[in-house]
Each structure stands twice: as structure tokens, then as C-alpha cells.
Amino acid sequence: MSKETKVMNEQIESEEEENMPEKKKRTIGTKLTMLKKGADTTDLKIGHLTNIGEIGLESEEIDITTHDSVDDFKEYIAGSKDAGEVSIEGYLFNESNFEKLLELANSREVRSWKVQYPSGATWMFDAFVKSLKDGAKDIEGVASFTMNLRISGAPKFEKSI
Question: Is 28-158 a CATH 2.30.110.20 domain?
Fold first, then answer.
């Protein structure tokens, strides 16, 4: 990439950030959806969420340190990429959806999921329900649940238009 192209890209990014409305910068209103498949007639929208965890990539590290490594420092190269897990927390206001998620957790089936930001940006990924738990029942608590989605393969990010 030429120096001129790099400067131009930085200017575009800076203008994009400055012109983004405050509403698009916030994450309240982010949605999680399991996409329909086979006999499903509609996507399954997982509502009443209070937290959708991090989505991204992490590379394994491979130690290539030898007796020739300079100044006694370890050396590494990047190994396989891992998209990890997405932790989900929410209120258990829709027992039918929870029942569907429980069936999915029991089946261990990999399904397609979408996380959509209020800005319109999306993450798409395939995952199975690694864990699904009905939340604690304290005296002044609200019925809640937690779920971890284990991503299989590469997640895809698409910025808003």
C-alpha cells in the first residue's frame, strides 16, 4: 500500500467516525438471531438480552525458540486461528425460546447466528450452544439465563452502510 493510499484511507476512516450519529455508536438495541434452517419457518430472535460478549479472533502461538534465539528471548509464530465463544446473558421472559435453545443445546447442532448492531453492522457465524443455564433465583431477582455459543469456523463482520 502506497503512503498516499494509506493517508487517504485514514482520512476516510476519520470522517466516517466523525459523521457517525451518536445513536449508531451505542450498542443498546443490538440483536441476536439464530437463522432459520430446514423446516424452520422463521428466524429465532433471542430477546431481552442484557449482554452479548466479545466476538473476534485469536491465533494460537507456536514457540520456535532455539539455542540461537537472540538475547535469550523466546520467539513465536502464529498458529491456527480460533474465534472462541460468545457469552450471552438475558432475562428469561420467553420460555418458548428458552425451550428451543435447550433443545438445540441437547442436539449439539451447529447453526448460523447473526449479531446486528443498531448501526446495521453485523457479525455472522456458525456455532453450537456450548452451555445454557437458567439463572440463579434470589429473593429480589429476575428470571434470567446465560448461554455460551462456541463458534465453528471463521466469523464474518460486515460494516454498516
Answer: yes
